[in-house]
Amino acid sequence: MQYTITPIATVRSPYKQKFGVARQPGLVPAATVCIELNDTFNADSVRGLEAFDYVWISFIFHGVLEEGWSPLVRPPRLGGKQKMGVFATRSPHRPNHLGLSLLKLERIETGKPVRLYCSGADLLDNTPVIDIKPYIPFVEAKPDAAGGFANAKPEELNVIWHDDCQHSLLTPTEKSLISQSITQDPRPAYQDIPERIYVMQIARYEVKFQIQGDQAVVLAVLPI
């Protein structure tokens, strides 16, 4: 039996390209998104949701649909060298390209359209959302559960802002967003080229930076 899934909302995110998107929710607290519900839904559809601190967002990895899927993938946490089964990972290259993120619910606007503002997001701009559910701690929090190869938080880079990078253009929130995103090391796991300059489009800016060892240096911040 086949089913048709219709998106219920669209994500407005500061992440404008796949490169630089946080690899997991919650790693970049400053990454705030707006989830804009379709006109089909009014305030009744979110009545009571404001009483919850976190929400589960089910979505489609729309940025990789044309790349297909594979039964074996190379998780970044394993250095991009070891293969694991796709269902043992959070890889976007899945049979149905479905994703699931737990985000902090900051506030709800019940106008037209209804908007949910969430932080700690790992979602690309224009991501189609297919469902929203409240997070229920007593059922879903399992602090003693085994985490497999992702049992601990990954090591972070130390971010340094070059004196000439024009970071004075940024608001404190924008600077936190960029810094927190880079500190997660957005490079492909197999790539370590100290002289390479990486370019990331985030919020209203194009950000250029280099990574050497455990240090990332922001070289330029240019308005898009």
Automatic annotation (TrEMBL):
Record carries keyword Methyltransferase: yes
Pfam families to which the protein is assigned, alphabetical: TrmO_C, TrmO_N
GO molecular function term, any single one: methyltransferase activity
Residues in TsaA-like domain copies: 5-144
SUPFAM superfamilies xref list: YaeB-like
The keyword Methyltransferase is assigned to this record: yes
Family to which this protein belongs: Belongs to the tRNA methyltransferase O family.
Name of this chain's protein: Methyltransferase, YaeB/AF_0241 family
